[in-house]
């Protein structure tokens, strides 16, 4: 295998050094499978955050996302078939919610295994040394232990490198935890605490609901993001609009159940009110920034090249974009209602935003007015949401990955992406990311885009199951959730190659994991590692040498726990 090696021996690439981030430009190497993208060949080069060995440390520039990895479960259920199974009207889930498919996890996967999988995939595919990570933070609301963090379980991946100097811990508030973790990572790189290494942010959840109207809004998955300076996706400094408020719109008070308590109507009201507040704060900040820079214009929705949202279900996202247009309309000093974007909207000139959360006339009018804008700025972001469902904390970052997966680097270069993140309870932020102008063939942006270009193929490679099988899996999870002395019953063969899975929970609730072989035809042993080449240890952005010397990894069986090790 060529994962993490200086000297790629992939037959399709040829012996000798290949190019880092070949990104699937060659056929998969022997043993690689179509479910996962082929690993990249690795040559000695500098990651986007790197500086020359003799460089002088300065305030980090363009801090943001350098690399991304998305993990989605290997099985799904069709929402149209679920409508029939649940005995509801045709279109209730597919049209009313805007959902096509819903991914789910069997009892073989939990939050620890999801995060183990997505982290190892990101590290392997980017040929990164675990020594190059100085901060690791997890955002999740899927809690399986009230004390021990998911982050500490992930530290088992770092053991061979000897790197235990890794800051960060789990961050929790419904679907907002991933964003809070990402902000913490960005802030760390921009702070006096930064030691020159990368930050790694992991966002993952398993979204399940009791039988009923909320169940079709479930899903599962994880996203990992590498954060550092000189990033192709840089955070706009000083441009975050945040709103925090107390509400019981969605919460999980039952410690022995995975299911939440949901007030559907209140949840929508909280989401939309938070969107209004965050957008108002963001606009005020960017207008003030532009004024200081001598830019003579007022910010509006047109200034975002793309606008993505946390997606509980796709229809709410479409309504949310329309909501932002309503905000622009109401704040405009003199909108033209005779022609153009606001044509025919004069009747709504004097409405108050807080009175319109459930106003069907307002909703319909602004959905129509924003239809073209939705097609241009938001629709592409809903690929994962539509095909996999609500992933909770990774939801909005699955939307970001969807945009990157469906556009070329040239189309993305120079665009500003608006990002709205929401977590019930409730916490929300609207912020923006600036995409680098550099879209040349070997640029960091090109490599990032190419690494996600197979996202649709990954979704298509999953296995469809019937609603009855899906319901049986939900019952099994319900019965076995938090059981001690338990061995999962579901098949490992249905998991994608390279997936970490739960092997057992002992009498003290300590969890043990193994990794499915990367070779689809090989026996399903516990993650057999058969690298025959020297592992490449890519230095951190501001470090001259890695902490640990390169070593030759021989065959080893990988097994992990969430307890003593």
TrEMBL record:
Residues of the Hydroxymethylglutaryl-coenzyme A synthase N-terminal domain: 59-232
Main enzyme class: transferase
Pfam families: HMG_CoA_synt_C, HMG_CoA_synt_N
InterPro entries, alphabetized: HMG_CoA_synt_AS, HMG_CoA_synt_C_dom, HMG_CoA_synth_N, HMG_CoA_synthase_euk, Thiolase-like
Catalytic reaction list: acetoacetyl-CoA + acetyl-CoA + H2O = (3S)-3-hydroxy-3-methylglutaryl-CoA + CoA + H(+)
Entry superkingdom: Eukaryota
Pathway it works in: Metabolic intermediate biosynthesis; (R)-mevalonate biosynthesis; (R)-mevalonate from acetyl-CoA: step 2/3
Protein name: Hydroxymethylglutaryl-CoA synthase
Record organism: Denticeps clupeoides
């Amino acid at each position: 295998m060529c994962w993490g090696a200086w000297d790629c021996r992939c037959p399709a690439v040829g012996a000798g050094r290949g190019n880092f981030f070949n990104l699937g430009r060659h056929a998969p190497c022997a043993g690689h499978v179509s479910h996962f993208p082929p690993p990249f060949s690795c040559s000695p080069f500098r990651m986007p955050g790197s500086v020359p060995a003799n460089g002088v440390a300065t305030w980090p520039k363009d801090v943001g996302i350098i690399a991304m990895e998305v993990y989605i479960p290997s099985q799904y259920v069709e929402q149209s078939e679920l409508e029939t199974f649940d005995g509801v009207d045709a279109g209730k889930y597919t049209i009313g919610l805007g959902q096509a498919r819903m991914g789910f996890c069997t009892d073989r996967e939990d939050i620890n295994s999801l995060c183990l999988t997505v982290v190892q995939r990101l590290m392997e595919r980017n040929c990164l040394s675990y020594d190059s990570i100085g901060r690791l933070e997890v955002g999740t609301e899927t809690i399986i232990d009230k004390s021990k963090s998911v982050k500490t379980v992930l530290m088992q991946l770092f053991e061979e490198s000897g790197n235990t100097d890794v800051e960060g811990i789990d961050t929790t508030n419904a679907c907002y935890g991933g964003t809070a973790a990402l902000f913490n990572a960005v802030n760390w790189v921009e702070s006096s605490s930064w030691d020159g290494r990368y930050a790694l942010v992991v966002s993952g959840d398993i979204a399940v609901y009791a039988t009923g109207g909320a169940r079709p809004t479930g899903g599962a998955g994880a996203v990992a993001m590498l954060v550092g300076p000189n990033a192709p996706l840089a955070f706009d400094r000083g441009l975050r609009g945040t709103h925090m408020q107390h509400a019981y719109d969605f919460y999980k008070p039952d410690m022995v159940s995975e299911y939440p308590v949901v007030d559907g109507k209140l949840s929508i009201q909280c989401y939309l009110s938070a969107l209004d507040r965050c957008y108002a704060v963001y606009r005020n900040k960017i207008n003030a920034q532009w004024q200081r820079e001598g830019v003579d214009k007022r910010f509006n929705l047109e200034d975002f090249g793309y606008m993505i949202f946390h997606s509980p279900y796709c229809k709410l996202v479409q309504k949310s974009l329309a909501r932002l247009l309503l905000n622009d309309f109401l704040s405009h000093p003199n909108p033209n209602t005779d022609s153009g974007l606001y044509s025919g909207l004069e009747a709504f000139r004097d409405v108050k935003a807080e009175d319109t959360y459930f106003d069907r006339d307002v909703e319909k009018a602004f959905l129509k007015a924003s239809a073209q804008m939705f097609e241009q700025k938001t629709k592409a972001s809903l690929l994962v949401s539509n095909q996999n469902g609500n992933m909770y904390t990774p939801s909005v970052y699955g939307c970001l990955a969807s945009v990157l997966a469906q556009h070329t680097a040239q189309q993305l270069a120079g665009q500003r992406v608006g990002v709205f993140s929401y977590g019930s309870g409730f916490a929300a932020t609207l912020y923006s990311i600036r995409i680098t102008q550099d879209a040349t063939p070997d640029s960091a942006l090109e490599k990032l885009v190419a690494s996600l270009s197979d996202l649709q193929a990954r979704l298509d490679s999953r296995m469809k199951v019937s609603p009855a099988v899906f319901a049986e899996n939900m019952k099994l999870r319900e019965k076995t959730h938090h059981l001690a002395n338990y061995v999962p019953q579901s098949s490992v063969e249905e998991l994608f190659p390279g997936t970490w899975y739960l092997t057992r929970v002992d009498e003290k609730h300590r969890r043990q994991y193994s990794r499915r072989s990367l070779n689809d035809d090989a026996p399903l042993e516990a993650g057999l590692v058969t690298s025959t080449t020297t592992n490449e240890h890519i230095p951190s952005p501001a470090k001259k040498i890695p902490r640990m010397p390169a070593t030759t990894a021989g065959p080893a069986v990988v097994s992990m726990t969430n307890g003593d090790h």
